[in-house]
Amino acid sequence: MTGRAPGLLGLGLLAVLLVGCTAVPEADPTPTARAVSSDEAQLLAIARFTNYDRGTRPFSTELAVSGVDTRVVGWVDYDSAVGYASVTGSFGAEALLWTDAAVGAIPRDPEADGYPALPIPAADDPGWQIQELDPTVSAFHALLAAISALGQDRPDNPLLLQQSGALWLRDDEVDGTPVTVFAAPPSDAPLETGSSDVATSDSPLRIWVAADGLMLRAEFHLDDGWVGVDFPDAEAPSLALPGAGG
Which first-to-last residue range defines the signal peptide (predicted)? Predict the structure, then answer.
């Protein structure tokens, strides 16, 4: 059940984000946003490949799910295309396991650091509730699919990123690490001949990328607002779909 979305926004990610978008994103307050340079396009082009090359990335995010404040902390393994996270809020804690095709939830408290307990429960554990991962049903499903789409087994095409409207937004820092903040192209299609203007509000994805190509933060526009996801630069376990219990 693995899969990769070609292009920075390609078949999966652009569709995922636009499905979850019910309003045009507000314009980025940065007045100096501009088209990426060749060097910046090269950096942006390796961001998803760097995730894949790392194998597994830890992540954390907070969002409202059906009006309930929800915290999600876990890992996404870009090599095996499996995500595993702890979901907490004003409800019983759950562990969440997903691929690009399905998502399962099981009652389970997180570890003290907020990450889900390992090992992943066996596939035949009766506590699992499994459904199709469908980005059209909720912003939460769209977010899971979008996080999974941030890894690819080859770099993106830097020239295409320039031609399709990738933007430099600003220089920034994440936990003391200098980063470049980009707005991804609105689509994979090159801009019309003679057109060079892309508004920051045209992109449903912004990413914070360190000098070595490591993605440290992403923002997705879902429903009527932005959802931020942090990707700490830390070790993480390899993940795989669980087998049946012994």
Answer: 1-27
